[in-house]
Please model this.
Amino acid sequence: MDIIVCMKRVPDSAAKITVAGDAKSIEQDGVDHVISPYDEIAVEKALQLKEAHGGTVTVVCLGVAAATKEIRQALAMGADQAVHLKDAGGNRGPLEIAQALAGVIKGRACDLLLFGKQSIDADNGAVGVMVARLLDLPVVSLVAQLDVADGRATVHRQSEVGTEVIEVTLPAAFTVQRGLAEPRYPKIKGIMQAKKKPLEEIDAPAPAGTMALDKLEPPAAREGGRIVGEGKDAVGELVRLLSQEAKVLS
Amino acid sequence: MTRVCVFLEAPGGKLKKSAAEMMGAAQGLGGDGTIVEGIDAVLIGQGVTTLADDAAALGADRVLVADADAFAHFTVDGHLKAMLKAVAASSPNVVIFPASTTGRDLAPALAAATQSAILTDLVELKLTDGDVCAQKPVYAGKAMATVRGSTDCVVVTLRPNVFEPAAAEAGKSAATETIDAGVTQDDIRTVVKEVLAKASEKLDLTEADIIVSGGRGLKGPENWHLVENLAEAVGGVCGASRAVVDAGWRPHEEQVGQTGKTVSPKLYIAIAISGAIQHLAGMRTSKCIVAINTDSEAPIFKVADYGIVGDAFEVVPVLTEELAKLRT
Model:
């Protein structure tokens, strides 16, 4: 079974995000980058499926030159090879990201195409479904359980109606949710091997400019910080404030 | 002139709360030199024909209805086919979806199929010089982005609980057109076999007006009744911090924060949550925040409108009792 996982390099969720002077990007100083957490879950699941059924795991990453670090991380976890779509800059909307990814995936052997449900920087949650559509693959999002047998996948999708049990014939695409797998830490041996694994580098097409980022700004500050009191004696006053001042108890 | 197409979600035979918000946002696009020429509402589902009047009451000029057994469950394959037919009939400049689990799938599928720009999870939407301009939180709300889509048609998803709902006016009428997308079960490659643990009648966290969240300060899952009882008393839904979810006390779908759900309720009560940066990112757009924590230096107090410094085990039962009294 040949599995392709799309992954993105993002600032760590613990990072403090500060808007840079150009009001279009963020300060990079002191910001650690990681594989976007949901993408990392997808990489882990791909490795588990490969260990159970055989096959290959290829990671595809659209990202700046520095994303080599996160790509090597995925290789160190156990992926067999990687494609780095090198991004030379410019703003890309989900459509352009999806078109670039679909462009390199098309024609490659792929039974299972995995994505994180969303990246934790742009928070669009759109690219996985879009790539699937562009490649005319069936797609299920928000997958929290995924089993493969006899060329079919049975998955659990966590939606607002509950947990949907869905069957689909492969090849198919999935966007994954927490709970599917716990990402492993690479072992020393894996880190050594990762340095020698094939990493194909391709220049990403220039963005077509269908979506512009006009401005980035810090979120509106909250006033906050008002301590009503200490212990249970403060409850009466809190309830009064909630009903009379904030008027949120109607 | 701008034509707007709005996908109204209607699971279980009635319009979702977000439907009025989506229609409100569509109506709000007018002005500023822009004329909204018409608003088409789209209903896709099994037995949704009867909801056309409700869509008309919310201000739709025309209601496009795709009603078939094949739409009993949401699938990208089935719903996209109907949505493409609707969009062909509507020729919209903007297509609006709620940022729900259905909207978050259907919108990108439509955008990819029509090569349209997509702007997601918006908290503000307007038209400027023919472009669709919008604001959306990025980095789970640690920053706000102003984005613009410039394709002929732009697909957007709007965050629930943010846009002013359109007022329903009974008796308003609209032309209703049936969309025959010709979708059968054979067209659907992802087959929904069953729906497990059907969510209770409770709203999803992202749509709830009131959320009561608990953190690690509650010491163990056996104490979760404190959160549940308070949520019950105020008519709210339960949420959880990442620490609690990672510890396995609560399921992932209850997690609020950067790797969980981003929420904007009217009232957010944080119990024994210190307020890690990734948690604050997920709830800082709540309209009113209450924090109860033993540590007066906890970061949660920096964003809270009202805080009580104290032991949750002591404070929460009293608060629950007082709030329950108010509701009876």
Summary: Chain B has nine helices and 16 strands. The first strand of chain B starts at residue 2 and ends at 8. The two ends of chain B are 51 Å apart (CA to CA).
